[in-house]
Design brief:
Helices cover 52% and strands 16% of the residues. The chain is α/β, with parallel strands linked by helices. The chain has two domains: 194 residues, 2-enoyl-CoA Hydratase, Chain A, domain 1 (Alpha-Beta Complex); 47 residues. The strands form two sheets. It has a six-stranded mixed sheet with strand order 1-2-3-4-6-9, sandwiched between helices. It has a three-stranded mixed sheet with strand order 5-7-8. It starts with a strand and ends with a helix. Pfam families: ECH_1 (PF00378). It comes from Janibacter limosus.
């Protein structure tokens, strides 16, 4: 059974972490599978929006500690961190909107996978745990980059250093997630389907521009905005919406 599965329905590319027996722990197979699934969704013109979720009771419990012990620790942790980091960056770089649906627990590297999404839907009762210091490790999967941008630096530091989990409602209040619902998978699919049926190209480029702004100077962002706006304005999606807006 594949560690990550991609299915496409009604324009939604549903990427599902598929190691429920291991809380969808990140091992090399899952990291590679996630990167490959995101690349496939990126290259499939039939995919207009992406939904990322995890099978079973927990979205992702972080790194698979058993694999840390079983493999050669002198090289494995770095290779795994590089591969998982590449998967998250590939997800961040998509010019397609991404919805993440989480439930149960989101820990360690699972936070980075989750934050690759734009709309993050959490199920009531979900716990969010920084987790790394409990096993003597430090962030991977882009967590040190993405977490302070989602929560703000001081909240991210407090979360990282306290050792205390956040509830779903705490995560909502601190900007880590965008919604808390009874059924995250159902709401996530609803949200992704809505995005796929809308101006998905514009949504995708908007999320790309916003995410890229963290690593660019003002002039570079402005130039990309103007270039993207011009290209979009000449495309079929915008032209059809222009006509609809003007009643033609």
């Amino acid at each position: 059974m594949a560690a990550v599965e991609l299915t496409v329905t009604d324009g939604v590319g549903h990427i599902q972490l598929n190691r429920p027996e291991a809380a969808n722990g990140i091992d090399m197979a899952l990291a590679t599978g996630l990167r490959e699934a995101v690349e496939a969704a990126r290259d499939d013109e039939g995919v207009r929006a992406v939904l990322l979720s995890g099978a079973g009771k927990r979205f992702c419990g972080g790194g698979d500690i058993g694999s840390f012990v079983d493999e050669d620790a002198t090289t494995y942790l770095q290779r795994l961190a590089e591969e998982a980091g590449a998967a998250v960056m590939t997800l961040e770089d998509l010019a397609k909107p991404v919805v993440t649906a989480v439930q149960g627990a989101v820990a360690g590297g699972g936070l980075g996978l989750m934050l690759g999404g734009d709309a993050i839907i959490a199920q009531e009762g979900t716990k969010f745990v920084f987790a790394y210091p409990a096993i003597g490790l430090t962030p991977d999967c882009g967590v040190s980059y993405l977490l302070p941008r989602a929560m703000g630096q001081q909240r991210a530091l407090a979360f990282a250093l306290s050792g205390r989990p956040l509830s779903a409602q705490d995560a909502l209040a601190q900007g880590l997630v965008t919604e808390v619902v009874e059924d995250a998978q159902a709401r996530g699919l609803e949200r992704a389907t809505s995005l796929a049926q809308g101006a998905a190209g514009a949504f995708g480029d908007a999320r790309r521009l916003l995410r890229a702004s963290w690593t660019r100077d003002r002039a570079t962002s402005a130039a990309d905005e103007a270039r993207t706006l011009s290209t979009r304005g000449q495309g079929e999606e915008a032209r059809a919406l222009f006509a609809k807006f003007l009643g033609r």
